[in-house]
Amino acid sequence: MALQVINQKSDPITIHQKTLARFKELWLKIYDNTSCFSCLSRAPEDTLDCHHSLCTQCTRTHGTSTLQEPWTFYVAKCPLCCERNYTTFAHKPDTAGIRAIIAEGGGVRGIIPLAFLKELQAVIDLPIAIQEHFDIAVGSSSGKSTNNRWRFGRANTVQVH
Ligand SMILES: [Zn+2]
Ligand SMILES: [Zn+2]
CA 20 to 30 Å from 57, out of 41, 75, 117, 134? Predict the structure, then answer.
């Protein structure tokens, strides 16, 4: 029996997917947002179109990404119920920490962070707004207006008085 598995040229992921798919009718009756049913090890983070949820590791295991967007994962079908999925999942790179920008005040010197951000955006020359590179923006005094001027999202902006 073990020899048959080796001869099927199946990698562990394919074997796991086939095992999960054997119970696809049962998976249609079971939904939970506290456990990833693919690995039973972690909490789910990504919810598929079928409403089953996977942890980030299982999304990467069952999904694919491209060279252009290596941290955006596409899971073609749910590994549990096998229904088609169109939602993609953007993950934070493993080596990325919290990306914070701090704009200090200082009256008229508050123009310096604005000029710096403008120059930085010109130098990196990417079709992505500079604001997209940060998770949180902190500003005090005139630094608050720097953050407002650059339209960092209100939810991730902290203003210090
Ligand atoms: Zn998992
Ligand atoms: Zn599903």
Answer: 134
Q: Which two tokens stand for residue 6?
A: 């080796």
What is the CA(18)–ligand 2 centre distance, in A? Answer: 14
Q: What is the total count of domains within the chain?
A: 2
Q: Rounded to an integer, what distance in angstroms lies between the CA atom of residue 47 and that of residue 51?
A: 6
Domain end point (choices 90, 109, 143): 90
81 and 6 in one domain? Answer: yes
Distance 48 CA to ligand 2 centre (A): 7
How far is ligand 2, taken at its centre, from the CA of residue 157, in Å? 36
Whether 55 and 12 share a structural domain: yes
The torsion of the CA quartet 101, 107, 112, 117, rounded to 10 degrees, works out to 40
Instruction: Give the tens place of pLDDT for each residue, 124-151.
Output: 888 888 877 787 877 777 656 666 666 6
Assess whether 37 and 108 both reside in one domain.
no
Residues 50-79: tens digit of each pLDDT: 999 999 999 999 999 999 899 999 999 999
CA distance 102 to 139: 6
Which residue range(s) make up the domain with 75? 2-90
Q: Is residue 43 part of a domain?
A: yes
Which ligand is nearest to the Cα of residue 54, counting in written order?
A: 1
